[in-house]
From TrEMBL:
InterPro entries cross-referenced by the UniProt entry: Endo/exonu/phosph_ase_sf, Endo/exonuclease/phosphatase
Pfam family, one: Exo_endo_phos
Name used for this protein in its record: Metal-dependent hydrolase
Superkingdom of the organism of origin: Bacteria
Annotated transmembrane regions: none
Residue ranges of domain Endonuclease/exonuclease/phosphatase in the record: 4-214
Length: 242
């Protein structure tokens, strides 16, 4: 399964123009089975989405997971999850995360066998530590293979992620921020121990460098138990229906 994480900055690009169409183009070029978005919704009022649902439906092969609690948002606390058609979303969860400002994380269960969690953590490390402890508490003891991904806002590659490292393998695919000259590995993955990373990278196309201030990151994973069923894939689901 190919996974991607992308902070779309409310579809405002490096040129300060809001252009959801080019964000959609970047998402399509990722060719991922699941895409976790940060800053998918605006911050004020009812938090209307910056990436219209109709545009996603008409121009991608992805479907938004039902995370919004109103009719205008795409996700929750700006976190949204897009799942490729043919993959069944069998459950969703929302988690409040402690912080000075409202923060949350979302989890989407796919085919009853795999869970993707998206988060956008606080700017201050002391609050990130609290948020990581909470994520470990709500995710660490569950049976499903799990990936946590998003904008962790951690600049250090050695420190700052200790709470989550107790139950997950941590991985930073590369420098993804800022797009003009990436130096920070803010966008990362954390994999439960029953998953194996088979490939990863930073999606550094010319369009991606303009569409947001973060570059998307991606990872390919598979189960480590050879006897276990493979991770769900859209191709497999569509073949079964055929």
């Amino acid at each position: 399964m190919k996974l991607a994480s992308y902070n779309i900055r409310k579809a405002v690009g490096r040129d300060r123009r809001r252009d959801p169409g080019r964000v959609i183009e970047v998402i399509n070029s990722l060719a991922a089975d699941v895409v976790v978005l940060q800053e998918a919704d605006r911050r004020l009022g009812q938090r209307p989405t910056a990436l219209p649902r109709r545009m996603i439906e008409d121009h991608t092969d992805l479907i938004p997971a039902p995370l919004a609690t109103n009719d205008v948002s795409l996700g929750w606390h700006g976190n949204a999850v897009l799942v490729r058609r043919g993959l069944a979303v069998t459950g969703v969860e929302r988690f409040d995360l402690p912080s000075l400002e409202p923060r949350g994380a979302v989890a989407v269960e796919i085919e009853g066998r795999f869970r993707v969690t998206g988060a956008h953590l606080a700017l201050m490390r002391r609050y990130r530590h609290q948020q990581l402890r909470e994520l470990h508490r709500v995710l660490g003891d569950q049976a499903l293979a799990t990936v946590v991904m998003g904008d962790f806002n951690e600049w250090s590659l050695r420190n700052g992620m200790e709470e989550l490292s107790r139950g997950f393998h941590l991985h930073a695919p590369g420098a993804s921020y800022p797009t003009m000259r990436p130096v920070a590995h803010l966008d990362r993955f954390a994999f439960s121990h029953d998953l194996e990373l088979t490939g990863s990278g930073v999606h550094a196309t010319e369009l991606a460098r303009i569409a947001s201030d973060h570059l998307p990151v991606w990872a390919e994973v598979r189960t480590t138990d050879a006897a276990a069923s493979t991770l769900p894939s859209a191709a497999g689901a569509n073949a079964a229906r055929g």
